[in-house]
Amino acid sequence: MKRQLFACLLALTMSCSLATAQEAQKSQLQQRAETELENHHPVTARYTYIRAYEDYFNKGQMKQGIECAAKAVDLYVKDDNYQEAFDLLRIVDQAIVGQVSDKGKQAALRYQNTKERYQLYMRFKKPGAAREQLNAMEAFAKATSDEEVKNDLLYTKAIYYYTMGQTAQGNAVFKEMADKLTASKEYGKVDEVYKTLIANGRRSNSASMVAQSYGSYMAWKDSVSAKKLADETGALKQQIAQNEASIAEKDSSLTTRQAIIIGLGILAAALAAALVLGGLVLMRYILQNRKLSKNLKLSNENNALKAKFISNISAQLQPTLEKLDSRQPEVKALADFSDHIQTLSELENSTEAVELEDTQVQPFCEKLAEQAKSLVKSGVKLAIDAPKMSVRLNREYVTHILQHLLANAAEYTPEDGTIRLEFKKRGAHKFQFLVSDTGTGIAEDQRDEVFKPFRAVRDLTQGDGLGLPICKQMALKMDGDLDLDSSYTKGARFVLDLHD
User: Fold this and answer.
1) Which of 76, 107, 167, 404 could make a disulfide contact with 81, Cβ separation 3.0–4.6 Å?
2) Rounded CA Rg of the chain
């Protein structure tokens, strides 16, 4: 009877192999091995299972590979090739360690392989060796977070204790497993395990095992019935609460819709009134806009006439100024002012597009720097940062702007300071010239005013303040811009943005 119970429990243990967490489609090698086994060709089937195991491991499908290796081990044992069976399990274990770096996954896979070795020792009736493998399985189960592995360990330990006649230990482990599954409300699994134990006790004609299993089963059924009733009652109450909430929500939704309809009616009336008022406002706006357009047109015409008048006066003053002594500061300042007025007027009123020409950047910048050297103070360093490349620009306007910026930098940069002329490519058709210095800089309250002409009454011998406004207009004529870099704090930096 003991042998029958041993055989029955061992068969139950082997049938409860650890299932894979994610089933993959069987490979052609595995299907071929199964076909060979069905056709009663065990040697060919065993060889093909080993090939399937190797193929799965090469693809990283470890669990399927271990299953195929276990099939091959079983076929070795049936042929009494025990050494080959243990050698294959050892090879599989080495492959797992060598190929799987994640410690948790490695432990789960080694658990599955060690269980195959444990089952062999149980089959050979070597409880001591089987116990060693069970201890190893327990260590692997602790090292993994796979709950399925941990549940399988509890079941395997219970079967071991029952097989060895250690009923008390078996009951304790089995109760731990049943309590764990019950806590997670997996009642069906616990019920199935109890029924399996009872059926195996009957098949082995073990009245004591049947009685113990049945008594434990009934006690568990009684305890879990109350839990199931509480769960069902709780679920029913939750469903009732959800239904009541749904009814309340629908009632609230109906009330809200009524309020929305009333609100929409009020809004429609308000919109109608707003449309009437908007129409009146629009008419008034149209009349005002016409008046503003007329005033703007008149203002533009006046500005054009004013620019023409100033240009004519400048042209008429020129012959007179040429007769005066240009060495007198006042005469020179007045002549320069006349030229600047004429240039600014032409720039503001010209509608002609500027012409661009290919220009080599480096020699262009070097020439400008050479011309500016005579203006800088002693010890001032004049640096150039310009690449060897060509861009399209209006050479006249850009030369005028950069010469003026360099002259200003030379005037305001003290001895031993630095003036830098740089060129930077900013896109496929965008580039910049930058002129920076380490001079006194420009006061923050004056930065927005430096490009505005006639912003203050000043002594013309100290400059007319039209240099930067003229440079700004030239930049705009080239579809570019000239600005002061407010982030530069070591002096002043002007940025000329252009397109080619």
Assistant:
1) 76
2) 48
Do the beta carbons of residue 100 and residue 106 sit within 8 Å? yes
**Owner of token pair 């930049």:** 475
Cβ atoms 108, 70 nearer than 8 A: no
Question: 2-27, pLDDT tens digit by residue?
Answer: 444 444 444 444 444 433 333 447 89
Task: Name residue 496's beta-bridge partners.
Answer: 433, 482
Instruction: Name residues whose C-beta falls within 8 Å of residue 45's C-beta, 6 or more positions apart in sequence.
Output: 33, 34, 36, 37, 71, 75
- Give buried/exposed letters for 4-41 (b at 16+ CB in 10 A, else e): ebbebbbebbeeeebeeeeeeebbebbebbbebbeeee
Contact between residue 500 and residue 425 where contact means Cβ atoms under 8 Å apart:
no
Quick check: 18 and 111 in contact, CB under 8 A?
yes
| Range 175-201 average pLDDT | 73
Helix (H) or strand (E) run with residue 94 in it: helix 82-99
Q: Are 470 and 338 in contact (CB under 8 A)?
A: no
- Tokens representing 243? 């239904």
